[in-house]
Write the C-alpha cells for this entry.
Amino acid sequence: MRRLIISLTWVGVFAAGAIPAHAGPPDEGAQSVLSNQQIQQALQAPVTRSFTPRGLARRQAGDSGQSVSLNIPFEHNSSALMPQASLQLKELELALTSTSLGKDRFEVAGHTDAKGSAQYNKQLSLRRAEAVKRFLVAKGMDAGRLTTVGYGSDKLLAPDRPQDPSNRREEIRDLGAAN
C-alpha cells in the first residue's frame, strides 16, 4: 500500500527547485504557495531528501513515505485559519482531488511545538486538523475520505528545538484507496 504524508506547517515553504536548497528560510511574513501540480509532483517523486525545518522537503521516512510542508497559517494559539491560508488550502484541495490522488483516503494529523501543556497542545492540534478538514469538505471534498487526529508535541520535526515554529504543522497521510 502506498503511504504518503503531506506535512503542513504555517511558517514557510521551499518549493522543490524554486528556492535553492542552500537558501535560508523565507522571512516570517513571506507567503509562499505551492501549486496543486507542485504538491502532486512532490508526493509522487521518488526522491529522498532530508527535511529542512522550514519549508518543502521530500523524504523517505520509513513507513511515513513522502512529505511536503505547506504554509497553512492559523491565528496564534487558535484553530482559526488566517485569511491567507485559503490560498494554500485551495491548492491542496485540487491536489487531493486530482486524478492521481482523487480516490485515496487521508488522515489529517495536527502537531504543535512544545510550548504549553501536553493536554492543551493535543487539543489544539486536533482542532487545527479539524479546521483543515472542514475547509476541504466545504470546497467539495468527500468528508468520508478524511479523518483527523491531534498529536500535540509528541512528534516534533525539530526535537532539538522543541519550541521552534517548524514543529507546528498539519500532516496529511495517504491511507490508500477509498472503498
